Amino acid sequence: MNAPNLLSARPVFVVGIGLHQYQRRSDTTYVSLGLTAVREALVDAGIEWADVEAAYTGTALLGMGASRIMLSRLGATGIPMTQVENASASGSSSVAQACLEVASGRSDVVVALGVDKPREGLGAAPGNAGINNLEGGSVVPFTHFALLASEYMR
Amino acid sequence: MTDPPTMVGHRCTTCERVAFPPDPYGCENCGSPASTFEQWDLEARGSVQAVATVHRHHRSTPVTPFTVGVIGLVGGPVVKAIVEGVGVAVGSTVEGFLAPDEPDDEGNVVVDLRFRVVE
User: In Å, how far is A122's CA from the nearest CA of chain B?
Assistant: First the structure.
């Protein structure tokens, strides 16, 4: 049996685009780079962030977990966020994933984003977001999960 | 310096959400850009919503065992921080204080905002 051809069964449109200019490495965080582009795309499309149902972030160098700390600054709406790494094709692969998600009927409005910046050393992307907190290095992932469990058991 | 210390956060002038720490990007509630934020002072006082004690840590500091709490500040924001002392439990009222930390590479004094249980 042949699988349905999703991309011919349901049309997919690019309704808005945005760009942060390419530039030499600077103090500008990857969060600022990405948010500039997404805000511009939302204005171009004439839609609100609350209309967006899913996000794909293409990046090769930022490290894991780049999406939430960036896109939540448009409003933490609880949408699923997926990070796509495919070397220099990371951005176009995130567009492909967004197209398939719309074509499949799972979502009507999806953001595909490409953002990158060489970083110092290893570690997850939120460490380079330029946001400090009180806990510093005292809350590692398993401590975070222990706190979630404590809250859940209340 | 006030005792307990004042925590400097921000308030979104669009939706009135108060947050800590101050954020350079935008509001997690309504998405307004950070240019619409105003500085907002918060009292370092709140109640413990969740608690976890760490017995093994990948660094030499903080010295184990130490206890981390999720603290709902009276001014609204929820923060995670180290809570010192015995008898820390969900529901405890806690207050901030400045604990000396290691000086930085340039010899500057560094302090750490921690919390402790108040009666």
Answer: 16
